Structures are given as structure tokens and as C-alpha cells.
């Protein structure tokens, strides 16, 4: 999975570029997911609706399901959009995050527009490309026009895929080698269980699970 952010100042054309990139990537047979990062917050839990009642009652997460699709929202503090994207969209080949110029370590495509956003929005070392409607003197990365979504899609595919979640399984002191399918299955199963618990971060960074079948757990160890 490749996760990239499309960044730039307000009214620079980020949404338009994401829309075009989704089409270009789908033409290449890829599954694409998109995330909108809202720095000023948003409201899905409308007052007076059932979902609002669930939230007020203390539900950590709430989902809506209909024949047309589903949506879910939960309480969270500082959520890493890249990590959350890998959890929500495990089948996606590419995830495009609109916004997020302050997310460290995330590859970024910066959008600039004459008369609106002409100065750099982020540090150059984080850039994969710049999309601009005019020349960008001294640019250290490829500069593409707003209509060159096909070339930009190819550039995205040239990026290294993100690392998988690291899962280590040990049984009676012997490490078991897990293939990608089993690792993903374990991750999603355990995440689904623990994030349903009250007071647990919905996007935990590390989970340690130990299953002791000796019957001595909590008793101070085995008796001689």
C-alpha cells in the first residue's frame, strides 16, 4: 500500500487533483481510497439523531449502515491519518490524504497555484512532486502541470510501498513464521477486539498479547 498526502494552501486545487488522481490510478487497475483531513474539525453526529444519542450515552465508536454504504466515526485524540488509513482500507493499493502538511514522514505532493499559493507550504525533503500551473525555479523534485495526472500516477506507483505491521508469534519458545495473509488476519482480529473496549485508543501503536495456558498466571508462578 502506498499512502501519500496532497498538500497546499487553501484554494490551491488539492481536491481537484485528488479527484483526477483517483481516476488515473483506477485506469491502471488499482484500488484507491481517499481521506480528507479536516484541521478545523467536522460534524457527522447530528444533534437529535440516534447516532448522537449513542455518542452521548458513552459509545466510543458509532457506525451507520444502509443499502448504499456505511460510515463510521469514533472519539480520538491525535490520530495518525496514515496509520488509520492502513487499518480502514487494507485492500487499497493507494491511499490519498487531502491535507496533512504537518504529518512528519509522509510522502507529499504539493499543489501550487498562481495568485493563490505560490510559496512552499512544506519542507522540500518531504516532497515527491510539485503540481503547479507555472514554472517552479530551483525545484528539487519533478514539477507537473495540473492536467498531468497520468504522469503523476506513474510517479506515485514508483514510490516504495509502506511496511506491513510487524507481528511476531512465539509458541512455547519457538517463533512461528507467518505469511502476509495470516499477519493481516491476526492484526484485524485483535484490533477489532481491543478497540471495542472502553477507554482504548482507536488507533493503538503497539499491542502485546500473551496467552498462558499453564494455569499458573496470576498465582506467582508454578509451584515446585
Q: What is the strand and helix layout of this fold?
A:
Elements: E1 2-7, H1 14-27, E2 32-36, H2 50-57, E3 61-66, E4 69-74, H3 81-88, E5 94-98, E6 108-112, E7 127-132, E8 143-144, H4 149-157, E9 169-171, E10 174-176, H5 180-194
Parallel strand pairs: 1-5, 1-6, 2-5, 6-7, 7-8
Antiparallel strand pairs: 3-4, 9-10
Helix pairs in contact: 1-4
Structural overview:
This protein is of the alpha/beta class and 224 residues long. Helix content is 24%, strand content 21%. It has a six-stranded parallel sheet with strand order 2-5-1-6-7-8. It has a two-stranded antiparallel ribbon with strand order 3-4. It has a two-stranded antiparallel ribbon with strand order 9-10. A hairpin with a 2-residue loop joins β3 (61-66) and β4 (69-74). The N and C termini lie far apart (51 Å). The model has no long low-confidence stretch (mean pLDDT 79).
